[in-house]
Design a protein that fits this description.
Radius of gyration: 35 Å
Strand content: under 5%
Helix content: 40-55%
Shape: elongated
Largest sheet: 2 strands, antiparallel
Number of strands: 2
Number of helices: 5
């Protein structure tokens, strides 16, 4: 006695792969073009049956289904309005021309003094990273006592730059 067939899950195919498989099945004479046309025509009939079923379910639910709306789709990430937001984001200004109405944090301008300090810090870090960790101590002390400019001059002379 033959065993009953187990249902096999169909593989996920892209549209290009599916087209190739159909062409290959036609050329191998496993399926005829007439059968393919029949399946395509049955698709419209199945859609009509599903629409009729939906209409009957809507009627049974009491109309347009307004009170039985589907649950909203959950988004990934932190839910909006959660407590762990950054505190700096609270006084955010509304973005100009924003279509979504999302709030945007205002960026303050940097002063020329801040810019010079950041550039100096960048030079200092770029040089200190070239020096082995075991020999960084004196340069860090110099930076604290005499300033970053002096530490940069010392590191440049030590590195030959």
């Amino acid at each position: 006695m033959p065993r009953p067939r187990q249902p096999i899950s169909s593989p996920k195919l892209s549209s290009g792969q599916a087209s190739y498989v159909i062409d290959r099945m036609i050329s191998d004479r496993r399926v005829s073009p007439g059968e393919i046309i029949r399946y395509v025509n049955e698709m419209q009939h199945e859609i009509e049956q599903l629409e009729q079923r939906l209409q009957s379910l809507r009627a049974a639910a009491g109309g347009g289904g307004g009170s039985y709306a589907a649950a909203p789709v959950r988004r990934r990430g932190r839910p909006p309005g959660s407590r762990n937001r950054a505190k700096a984001a609270a006084p955010a200004a509304v973005s100009a021309g924003g279509k979504t109405g999302r709030k945007r944090r205002r960026r303050s301008r940097i002063t020329p003094e801040q810019l010079a300090s950041r550039q100096l810090q960048g030079r200092y870090l770029g040089l200190i990273r070239q020096i082995p960790a075991s020999r960084r101590g004196p340069y860090q002390r110099t930076a604290k006592e005499k300033g970053r400019e002096a530490a940069i001059r010392e590191m440049q002379s030590a590195l030959g730059k």
